[in-house]
Request: fold
Amino acid sequence: MIKNAQKVIIWQMIAIIGLNLAYVFVISDRFSYMGFTFTFNLSKLLVGTVILTIMLLLNYLIKDKFIFAVWNIMFIYLFAGEVIYYQYTKHSSIVQLGTIAMTLILLVFVSRTKKVFSENRRFKHIDQLLTPLSIILITPFIVLYYRYIDIKNLFLIDVYKTRALFRHISTPLTGYINAPLVRIILPFLIVENMERRKWFKVTLFFLMIIYIYLCGALKSVFMGLFALLLFYKGDYVLKVVNFLKAISFLTFFGILVEAISGSVFLLDSFIRRVFFVPPYLNNIYIKYFTGNYTYMSHSPLGLGLVESNLDRSLSMYVGEVVMGLKGLNANVGLFTEGYISFGFLGSIIFSMLICGIFLYIKMIKISPKYFGIVFVYIYYLNTSFLSTLLLTHGLFLFLVFSTLFLRHSASI
Reply:
């Protein structure tokens, strides 16, 4: 058992209570027109509570500290939101609960494996190579997009207007550069220079990430920056506790702010969109594609073996055709993609794939100070398809980069 697991369980319970209260008293009321409804069903409430309690007790079976952190973040971010949405929504599907629960159970077994890759030596002063490379990579963003920068996006104002604009003006070059630069190289350089207390460089790399955020207003870029700071210090248990405290603060304080001022900014931006929009979309996908599976025809990883009958990308098809909202890109993640591709067999395959990814990261033993980068990819599990995650969001490159530069070992 991981030391101080009880503390994490207590904070999980506090965060879950906060998410329940936020959904019942604010989100289901203020956003009912968007499909977030509240229907009290005692049996579903009891089932949800029992499931959450039993799953939380699995903490006592986890042996590895890294998997402990991954498991608890996946539990509150992916699983708890699904359970709460299931409890209070009529005709909600239990498929997604089963898929995520299966993944969490498999991760317990992953945590108990002792196999690790042999130690390697990290290259010393790799930042001397990556610093000029990062400047080269950001140059196209400056040259192509400086005239379209909207400072209001820093305050989350007009972000959808900016996103719509950049859908038309973005180039493939900057699209492929974005993920390696923002999600891997710059976070690595920030951590390395924070370790050496080189604050000028830290500030420079922070500003570079913020500038790239303004080139498209993707809030996941901001989230990555927040995660980098939140997960930088402390052991894995402290990292998880800090994350749960942040969620608890946002829910309880957000409820208070709404009661006093009527503002739902905190609960909308950081709670509804992160914890409850994915379950809402997952249910739409599952209901539409049950018995009508895609067999990966929607993905380049399907290799064209099955012809797609969609006239646009899957996420745009669901957003515009199924949901009837023009311009809506209804992104969902790997758990849903597995099911809509092959049904329950797909859920099992993708669950094993997700566990395999974290098993590999566990086996290479990356340094805890880089956990913020790992967190970003946990976040993307619920918002992107496999091909997008591996290539566009740079997961494949991250696994290679981690093996070479992020391992918790000596330097040369």
